Structures are given as C-alpha cells and as structure tokens.
Protein 1
Amino acid sequence: MSRQTLAAGVGRVEITPPLTAPHAGWGAQLHELPDGVDQELLATVLVVSDGLETVAFCELELVILSRAESDAIRSAVAAELSIEPAQVRVCVSHNHAGPPPSAWNWTARGEAALAGYYALLPAQVAGAAREAKLALRPARIGWGRGESRVAVNRRETAPDGRTVTGVNQRGPTDPEVLVVRLDGIDGEPIAAIVGYTMHPTFLGPTNRLISPDWPGHMRAVFEQVTGAPCLFAQGATGDVGPGPKGFSDDLRAVHGLGAQVGCEAARVWLNLDLPARTYRHQRVWESGAPLGKWSSEPVAEGMPSVRGRAVSADLPLKTQIPVETARTDVDAAQARLDRLRDTGAPANEIEAATFATKRANMTLFRSTTYSGMSAAPVEIHLLQVGPIVFAGVEGEPFSELGKRVKRESPFDATWFGGYTGGWAGYVATAAEFPRGGYEVETSPFAETAADVLVAATLSALHDLANEEGRGR
C-alpha cells in the first residue's frame, strides 16, 4: 500500500447529560443536580488518513475520563475504523461545568443516571467516528500560531500565606494559540484544531447550569467565523486559570472569555493559505498612483504523514496512606455531609462538609490506585497529522513542562497537554513543591516526576521523528 493524498473527515455527537445526573463536583457547591443547560456538550471526532495509516482525534467536553473509560472509547473507535487503539487519541477539554467524574460521585442522588451516561459514551463517540469515516475526502493541511494573554497563573499566595488556586499575575503561563486547518481540495473547510492552555474553571461552585465553559464558547465563535468544525486541544494547564473573574456563575463573562480566544484562533485560521503560497513583486502598475502589483504561486506540498503512537513512562510516586484509613475517612465524611443536608444545615457547614468529602474521595482514589507502589506507568500518546504532532499525557502537567517539550521537540509544530488517555493527577514542577497548595498536595507524584515525564515525552518525539526522518 502506498501513501496517497491526505484525506480527512469529521463527525460530532451531542453528549449533554440529563438534568437527573449530578452536576460539576466543586467542593464548595451547595447543589447536587443542574438546573438547566447554558450550551450543549459535544464530542467531536476527526479522522485523518495518508493512505498508509489512519488516525482519530476524539475530543469530549468533559472534565476527566478514567483510564478504563478512555480505553473503552478508544477501543470502540478503533473497532469502527479498523485501526489499532494506539492510533486513537481520546482527550477532554477538562470542563468543570458538566457532569462530575464517574469515580468522584459524592452524592447518591443521580448515581444511576451518571453511571448510564458514562456507559453510553463509547458507543456515542464511535458513532461520531463512523460519521467522520463516511465523510473522508481529499484534504490539505496547514497550521499557524497566535497569542492570547487572557490566561493567568493560578498559584496564588493568599494574605494568610497559603498557596491557593487563584490569581498569580507574575507566574508562568503559555500564551500560544495553535491552529491547525484542514480544507478540502475545493477549498471548503473540513475541520480545525485549536490549542490553548487555560483551565476551564471560569464557571465555579455557584453555577448551576451545564456548560462547556470557555472552550465551548471559543468553539462556537470560531465556527461561526470560519465555518470549520472545531476540536479543542487543552495544553499543560495544571497551574494556569482564567483569572480574577473565574469561579463564578457569570455566563456573559464566560462567553466573552471564550470569544477572545476564538477570535484570535479565527484570525490565525483566516491568515493561512491552503496550499501555502509564496508572494513576489511582479510589476509597477500605473494607476494615478504607482501601484506595486504582486503575484503568488503555491509552495510545493510534501507528502504528509499520519501516525499514532503510545508509550509508557514510569513516574515516581509519593507514599500513600493505607487504603482502609482512606476508606474510613470517606465513609465518615460522606455520612456527615448526608446528615447536614438532611437536616437543612447552614450553607457554610454544607460547603465545608462537601469540600471534606471531595478531598477524602480524592485521597481514597490515590490510595487504591497507587498503594504500595514507588512508580506508576503513565501513557504518553503521540498523534502526528502532517507537520503537527500532538503529545498528550493522562495527567495535569504544569505549563513550564509544556513549554519545554514544545521548545525541545524535533518537530516544527508540537502541542503538549494533559487530559489524554485518562487522568492520573497533577504533575507539578519540582520548584513548586516547597510552596505546597492544592495541585502539589493532591498529586500522587513525587517532585522528580516532572523531569521524568518531559524526558520520556521528548524521547518519544525523537523516536517518532526518526521513523521517517521527518524531524527538523
């Protein structure tokens, strides 16, 4: 089989949960179920083939998926497309205004609806993959970079000296807006991928509506301007958030935040020529004023490669508390929360108990997953689509890690982010461990894990580049 013209197709399915399923999962929220829908949640699948290999990019507007849930979706999509699971990328936007993670259900109310919701996802996403497969047509690809400064570092030092999740205007962020454009040979848009690094936590504990948060509103604005179905690639956003307006229920403001990123992405998209062209001065055209007339010609297109690869890296772990201790703490916290809700306790007491219950469940998750282990295998997934490689990990890496991977990658265009193939927790830089805070304290990983992850990702990228000598 020989490599042929690039082909691409896109499919989409709505995955908004019922209002009978639990909502969000903030420790400080007072509600259990949502009151309505701000904007529908979507799962979008892009299928791309170069004649030798076919890959699928699956993006869901959810908070996290477990490794098992991600693998189930990956297997269903792979079966539908007759490809290997490693050729399927499953990632989420990390949206905090949809259903909570299936494993962190702090309330029995809506439990059956939530379980049914997650059980249906593999079939739904596989259906979108089938739609994308049926829509495959010859395509051209291009990419570009923009910049948005709306995101801020969220590792704030509060007045009492604690490290809190808030606003740190001097901390590191990653302002890059990556845009990948896929058009048909006729010039009609097929799809676009937009990458940006910012936690979707604009909508917070008081928001009672299902929403895709800012990435969904970015998508809506981008699609309105360009006409191209948009997939979102979250970056290394472990320490990056939406700034001082975040953690609210201000729908107008979250729409505006998404629009800012969407407009920048649309600007980049509109400036891309497919195929790429070179321009040169042709002549002076006398028209009252002497006009400089330029001409253009297309740049010779190389034969684009499409590849999907998965490797594993063993990340060093902290020591976890005993599983039975963690389970006892969860039972006690849940019983207290149920009692306060049943008796109509004051809001501040319910908030505190909800927070304690969520933290206890997170600790139990870490204990049951990693107890007795000194290191944990974490998947690094690579998806190459023409000149761009998307590197994704099943965790929440800090932004400095993403910038380092992109800077040292052998490819001209590399995107690095988390929430791909599952969820394993925060991966903080060693420099941030002395400060503590939520991201460090809830992570299962030791302070050396960040360097191990970066080294393993760069090694995998170099191996991919060496397969065909396509690195720069």
Protein 2
Amino acid sequence: MADGRSDGYLELHMNSWDCLAGLLLVSEAGGDVCPFLEIGSLRDGGPVLAAAAGVAKGVSQASNIVLAAR
C-alpha cells in the first residue's frame, strides 16, 4: 500500500507481531484499519484489514471484517 501498488490488504488471520506496525502506518497515513487490538487479537491473532479510505468500506462489507471507528 505504501508504494501505491495496492489499495488495501486483507488477511483472515495474522499474528500481532506481523501486522501492528503496518496497521499503525496505514492509520497514520489516513487509511482505514480494523480494530485489531480492540477485538482481542494481541495474543492469538485475528483478521487484518488495512485499506485506502476510498475503498475501505466496500472491502469491509465484502469480507465481514469491521473497521475501527475514526
């Protein structure tokens, strides 16, 4: 996403150590992300969604992965 080659990233299960830095970067850059820590995924992992603001809602609806509130 950072280099502009994709509008989003979706993974049905990922561990926290593999995604937290990326979720922070996307969020700080104005993109939308899933509430990974709020859904209890720190220890056991969980779904990951990070997307550009223009496509995030559609990807969230299609994947059933909730986006974090802004």
